[in-house]
Amino acid sequence: MGTKPQGSYAKGVERRRDLLRIAAEVFAAEGFEGTTLKLVAERAGIKEATLFHYFSGKQDLLTAVLADRDEQNSTRHGGSPGSLADFPGIAEHNERHPGLTALFAVASATATRPDHAAHDYFRNRYSWLLRTVGQDIAEAQARGEIRTDIAPEDAARLIVGVFDGIQLQWLYDPDVSMPSALADILRLLAVQA
Amino acid sequence: MGTKPQGSYAKGVERRRDLLRIAAEVFAAEGFEGTTLKLVAERAGIKEATLFHYFSGKQDLLTAVLADRDEQNSTRHGGSPGSLADFPGIAEHNERHPGLTALFAVASATATRPDHAAHDYFRNRYSWLLRTVGQDIAEAQARGEIRTDIAPEDAARLIVGVFDGIQLQWLYDPDVSMPSALADILRLLAVQA
DNA sequence: GTCTATATTAAGATAGAC
DNA sequence: GTCTATCTTAATATAGAC
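Predict the joint structure of the above. Result:
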């Protein structure tokens, strides 16, 4: 299962990067279901069969695109992603990329089925994200900045939940401000003056 | 567009009800993409073409199933659904129906595309839900039960966001308690003793 | 009982996945 | 190129109104 073993020739590495970028654009514009591998191959100037050399199928390509974007988002911010302080910035970034944001939203919901290619990816992602945010919360509690009448892991679930839930509302109504909603939940969690 | 005009013969009305129930079961078990209309028709003991007499297509069938379940959820509770007090009960109910919950989660994300058959359905649903919850919040604020340092409509967005976001986390990890998370966000919103 | 609306089906066109 | 799923067309059977 998963991405095929990576060749080491420079041309192959570059082509793979190209394919990830192009696939991300096409998925973002047409949606996952609306995309055909033929179209991705055409845009990349290769045959469909060549695509199958790099990715074992459509779902595998999707998973690779998601992981790649995640990694880019991480390195764009200092290097400690998922840190609580980065959330508003990530939300702002997402507002500027509606296609990719929708892709993530759809993928994270469809991949809840255990047989989906990206299932493990998202499960690990949530596990790591909740742990990281939970640690941030615990530290902020120790500093007396965040209320202690809620467990750190429960607060982390709320914050991540608001992030995903508001994103959905924003996709239906772009007037919604995702950074504001994140600021709201953080304010509710803050120790009262 | 949308569901075909409803016939008036008793047989047709009953068959349509049957189809909605069976389609809900199959969608919940196999997922929307994993379901074939042939299978739904077989389970109902009719030919595929007959299905098209009642629903104009697969997406239309999905929309009808979602709306029908929504209506049933509404009538199951006294009659004022979407009321804040019903949320924990609805969350508990959803925990007992993972397949349908996943169906809703996937559909609400995929229908963010304006050309999706269920787009208007979900947009209206969120609009109505946020308005209803917002009114509940405003009333609770007037009674001095909920903090007034957040606007009612913003608080409503947070609550609905937590509902959807936690649902996603629960689909990846059934140990998550959706009612607890709802209780947590309501506690953060409550006026401190 | 006849007539119209509705329900059902057979056969096949189209399109997308692999 | 082959196969499978969605959807059309057009013709037949049945339900219910008068």
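The mean pLDDT of chain A is 87.
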